[in-house]
Design a protein that fits this description.
It contains seven helices and five strands; from the N terminus they run βαβαβαααβαβα. It is α/β, with parallel strands linked by helices. A five-stranded parallel sheet has the order 1-2-3-4-5, covered by helices on one side.
Length: 178
């Protein structure tokens, strides 16, 4: 086991300093972060210095979701839906923004670990490959990805908290065992 830092991503410049201190002075192995910051997606350029620093240090960022509070009303009721559905959805949204906005192209050495097997994204990766082909109005023509969206899954690490051997087999089939 190794410790991760917790970063103040609301202040990206401070988060860069915190990450460097955590890794170089405190011996921590990376950072645990949420899935967005106060409604801002991680693909927002204001976070680029953080990703650059993590890439430079060669340390992973573990994305653990905080659910999707804007859906709280729909998640009300039995089944702890904010966790059951909301957390995998939030991970899926965060990863999709990093892919589709070109963040993973800009920082190809960035090590991202996605909680809960990457949410729904590995199961629907092929759908991502067709999004801009079938719905070009929803895609920015100025963003030219270097590869198909599903191929970015090969550069993301996924935890295995997905509850069944079949789920693990499916995840490995989609993203590889490495």
């Amino acid at each position: 086991f190794a410790a991760f830092a917790s970063l103040t991503l609301q202040a990206p410049d401070l988060a860069v300093q915190e990450l460097e201190t955590a890794v170089k002075k405190q011996g921590l192995k990376g950072a645990a972060i949420g899935d967005s910051v106060s409604g801002a997606e991680f693909s927002d350029p204001k976070f680029h210095p953080v990703w650059a620093k993590a890439e430079e240090l060669g340390v992973p960022l573990f994305i653990h979701p905080q659910s999707t509070p804007e859906l709280a009303k729909r998640f009300a009721g039995n089944g702890w839906l904010s966790n059951t559905i909301g957390n995998p959805l939030a991970t899926t949204i965060a990863l999709s923004h990093l892919i589709f906005e070109g963040t993973l192209d800009r920082f190809p050495g960035l090590k991202v670990i996605a909680a809960h097997g990457g949410g729904y994204l590995p199961s629907y990766a092929d759908r991502s490959d067709h999004a801009c082909l079938t719905g070009p109005k929803g895609c920015n023509p100025d963003i030219k990805l270097k590869k198909k969206p599903s191929e970015y899954l090969k550069q993301i690490y996924f935890d295995s908290l997905i509850f069944s051997p079949e789920a693990i087999r499916h995840l490995v089939a989609q993203v590889g065992a490495g």
